[in-house]
Amino acid sequence: MGGSPIDSNKIAYLQQVKQMNMATILRQIWKKEQVSRVELVSSADLTSGTITNLTGELIGHKVIREYEAVSGSVGRKRVMLGFDPGHYRIIGLDIGRNNFEIVLMDLCGRVLRSVGGDVDREAGPEGFFARIMPALTDMRQEAEKAGHPVLGIGVGVPGPIDYSRGALLNPPNFPGWSGFPLQAELEKRTGGRVMIEDNARTSALAERWYGIGRNVDDLVFITMGGGIGGGVISQGEIVRGTNGLCGQVGHMTIVMDGKVCDCGNRGCWEPIGSIPGILGRWGGGGTMDDFKAAVRAGDSHALKCMEDTLAFLETALINVFNLYDPEVVVLGGQLYPYIAEYRATVQERLQARLYAFAKDRLRLEPSSFGASQSAIGGAAMLFRELLSEPVKLLV
Ligand SMILES: [Zn+2]
Predict the structure, then answer these.
(1) pLDDT tens, position by position, 146-179
(2) Helices in 299-372 by DSSP H: which ranges?
(3) Between 1.10.10.10, 3.90.226.10, 3.40.50.720, 3.30.1300.10, what CATH number should domain 5-83 receive?
């Protein structure tokens, strides 16, 4: 009978095998969006019996469902498998210094609802929660009342993060949040599972799981706005480094004898290349819209300032391409719309500076999800976990 150590070891082992096989099946479905059982047998390298059993179980859990596809010239109908958008939900939350965004997503990666707005940076965590909790609670309860279990809440937040405690470290220009135990606090307030990540990395994860990265295993996401951050995806997974600093592209040295930065280094890209950095160099005393209008009007000082901005960007990007060797660098954040028109020019200039054999493969792309990028990436963390450890999340 059960209970002996050998039996429990065997059960644990079988559970592990099942987890791995389910994960393999779900990854194949994610990559191809829809796939037949026959294709799964060859691509997942599992027996047809295993495929039938496990896909049956996943259909029972409403993680995947059958779709009818018409294929070939004779119009033969085939049964395909794809994610089921009708049951589970995931919530993504982006905490910005001046704003927030919450998205409710289905397993097909579609945003079903989104709520966003401004927050008062000076109000600290208490003010922030007072502002967002009604919307967050509403979204969660509404989904659950309608019979949609919420797998969890994935949160993007200004880094750096103490991952062992699920807390913020000391994000610059973010009063009151230093050392704040965000993960535990949100778990307490919502009663659900919460994952937190640096918002440049959630932005990269959105691209990996729902955007350009579905077919790209090595990418770097650069977010430019009030600061400059980066998220590195290598061999399909986010890379954090020893201190969580991997991909801190905003703190690469661009000016050798430049000013001392908040991070302690001197001559960093962020203080000259971010929105405050650009406006500071311009000195016109206005917003990015004002600056752009001056550039359009042909104001020589504004034009020089824009040229310098692009030169800093180009210098930073050639370093990123040479250091990380990504298939794609994706540009996003609040600054991007103001420099979008120069993307092709920057890409050409970069190609002229990269190793000749690699230059034709260099890709510089705009982000897929605009202002919702980081919130969608928050949800992507839970989606990734479902695809890695389905048994853990579903039982
Ligand atoms: Zn710095």
Answers:
(1) 999 999 999 999 988 999 999 999 887 788 999 9
(2) 300-324, 336-339, 343-353, 356-359
(3) 1.10.10.10
